[in-house]
Amino acid sequence: xxxxxxxxxxxxxxxxxxxxxxxxxxxxxxxxxxxxxxxxxxxxxxxxxxxxxxxxxxxxxxxxxxxxxxxxxxxxxxxxxxxxxxxxxxxxxxxxxxxxxxxxxxxxxxxxxxxxxxxxxxxxxxxxxxxxxxxxxxx
Length: 139
Prior knowledge:
This protein has 5 helices and no strands. By secondary structure, the chain is mainly alpha-helical.
């Protein structure tokens, strides 16, 4: 078993610690304009990413079976859907802290999944800061 705490567990813990401490944090209810749209797209991104992860798992299970072509189509379609949401997020300028946090959390996740150990540490630090300051945008 890995000594590294899974990303979702760390984020959940940081968010719960923030709430337990009674910290004042920006919430979706205080977002306006583009930030409201970015928060909505973040939720869409979560759904699309979960669909893609499930499709990748199904594709792996179907490898070298008659179901592999269908699983590959779903994997490709789910990736395209996720990329479309991410492209939309990239097109929309943030109006405030909530919108900035949406984008920063997505970057932090990218570093976590493909960067160096130094990138991972900075990404985790950024994610923890955002989870503390704006848990509504935690991914």
